[in-house]
Amino acid sequence: MGVAGAALATTISRFVQVVIMMSYIQINKHWLITSKVTSDREKIRHSFNKLALPTTTNALVWAIGTLTYQMIFGQMGTTELAVFSMLGPFESLCYSVFFGIAVACSVLTGQSLGREDFLDAIRMSRLFIKLVFCIGIFLGVGLFISRHSLVAWLNLDNAKFYPLALPAISILCTVIWLRMLNLIIINGILRAGGDSNFCLKMDFIAMWIVGIPITAYGAIIAELNFTYVYFLLVSEEVVKFLLCFHRYMKLKWVNNLTLTNS
C-alpha cells in the first residue's frame, strides 16, 4: 500500500494504544479518574502554560526542523535523500531503546522531586547519565563493527548507495552515545524538573541557529559531498550537549512540580 499503508498502520496503532491505556486506567481505578478536581482553576492554568505549552511548541519546532533537514538533503539529489531517509528509521530504532530509559529516568527522578528529596533526584540523574553513556559507547562500538551488515540490512549495499551509506553509518555509530546523552538529559531529567522553557530555547538554538544553517551551507553553498554534510549534522548534537549539560550542572531543574507547590 506504500505511503497510504504506512499512514493507515500508524493511525491504527495509535488508536489501539489509546484504547489499551484508557482500559488500563479504568480497570485499575487510576488516580486520574478517581481524584477530585481542584477548585483552583488559575493554578491549573498556570501549571499548564508553564509546562505543556513549551513542550508542545518544542515538538513542533523539532518536527519542522527535521523536515527542513530532509529538504536540504533533497537539494543534493535523489540518491542522497534516499540514503538519508533510510537511515532515519534505523536511528529511530536505536532511540527507542534509550527513550524507554529516558522515560524511566523521568518517572523516578520526578517522584524524588515530588517528595522534595532533591539529593536522591540528583543521585538518580547521575546514575542514569552514567548508565546511558556506558550503554551508548557499547552499542556504538557494536554497531560500528557490524556496519557492513547494517548497510546490507537496510538494502543500501548496491553500487549506487553503498559509497554514501557506509560512511554515514560509521558517523552515526561514532556519535550515538552523544545523541543518547542528550536524550536522557533533556527528556529524562530537565523536563522532569519542569525546565521546559530552557529545552525549547536550547532546541531552537541548536537546530535553527547552528545545525540547519551549517548543514544548508555545506550542502547548497559549499556543495560538499554527502559524507561531509552528514557529519555537519553532529554540530547540532554538540551544541545541544554543551547547553544541556551546563544547565544540568547548575541544578535549575531541581524543582517540585506538584500542583500544591506550583
Brief descriptors of the model:
262 residues, mainly alpha, 2 domains, 83% helix
Number of helices: 10
Number of strands: 0
Mean pLDDT: 88
Derived from helix and strand composition plus strand pairing, the structural class reads mainly alpha
Tally of discrete structural domains? 2
Beta content comes to under 5%
How is the main sheet built? none
* Topology as a string of helices (H) and strands (E): HHHHHHHHHH
**Helical content (DSSP H or I, runs of 4+):** over 70%
What is Rg?
21 Å
Can you describe this structure?
The chain is built from ten helices and no strands. Helix 3 runs parallel beside helix 8, helix 4 runs antiparallel to helix 5 and helix 8 packs antiparallel against helix 10. It is globular.
Summarize the structure.
This protein is mainly alpha-helical.
What layout of secondary structure does this protein have?
Blueprint: H1 2-27, H2 31-34, H3 41-76, H4 78-114, H5 118-145, H6 147-153, H7 162-190, H8 196-221, H9 226-232, H10 234-250
